[in-house]
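Good day; I would like, with your permission, to put a structural problem before you. What I wish to show you is a protein chain and, alongside it, a tokenised description of its three-dimensional fold. Here, with my thanks, is the record as I have it:
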Amino acid sequence: MSPPAIFYYISRTLRQGAAVLRGNVKGINEKVRSKIKDNGRIYKTEIKKIVEDTISRQHNIWRKAKHIPSCRKGHNTAIIRTYNLLIEEAISEIFDLLPLSRIDKKRLKSICGNLFSKYPREVREDNFSGVVIGGFGATDTFPSYIQYRMDCITVGKLKHIMTTSSSVTVNQSAAVSAFAQKEMAHTFMEGIDPELLNMMTSYIVRLLNDYPSILIQHIPGLSNPLRASLNLRLKRISTKIIDEFAKAITKYRQDNYIDPTLGIVGVLSKNDLAEMAESLVHLTSLKRKYSPQSETVGGPIDVAVISKGDGFVWIKRKLYFDKEMNPGFLMRYNK
């Protein structure tokens, strides 16, 4: 990665990761403004404490996260040593006039080093590419795929990690997996939009958790110990109902949508499988086109099939030129 590119990456990730969990130095300013609103003023020592606490929390997240297999321990130290001046410049630019102690700067440098060798669960990063490798190995009877997440190359190391994998087996005759924008594929497979399901589940959980307290408030003549005891019993009942609801929804989706679809996919012809895959991508493209969301999927769709007997075969492939006007190219290509 070139010096300007790594400076941009460090700067961007510092904005996301070093200041606050949600990743923006503006979070510190918001805390400062909130303090001023509550007390009418704020002291320099209080600002320094806010900065120290937010950086410390973020540093602990990155420090505790495990190194990924491709970037073992020591890679972060090499990053800091190689790009020390760029890191210092990025810290100076991002944090500007905010008071930073020597420990704060040391922690920020440590975060910069860990950016290229770790994936903490608590930190959401969007600056990466996904690569899926699918097909047959030399000795494989059934197809499989492996999905990788890749970021960048620094100090001779590619930051990447395997995220998911799946394989058709004797006991599992088919699998349908979605990548990148997954909502339409999940809706097709499970019968409900995942975001809608999460919203409904969250609302029901909140409703059942709050209902015992609301109910007890409307029962007159209860002593405080009896209220506490009754509230505890009703909370346990609510928890049991929530668990039963989650299991029932999962079983219904599995029995009525997922299993039947996988059963059909398992016996489809290669041509039908290709058509199904293209249709799912097209559904996602159509939804993105006619919704406020970013149109990240669109245009002509390339479709290919990989089989044990035929290898890699294009079913549909877009060209950057009109093939009718370039017969010579097709003759050379086929030859």
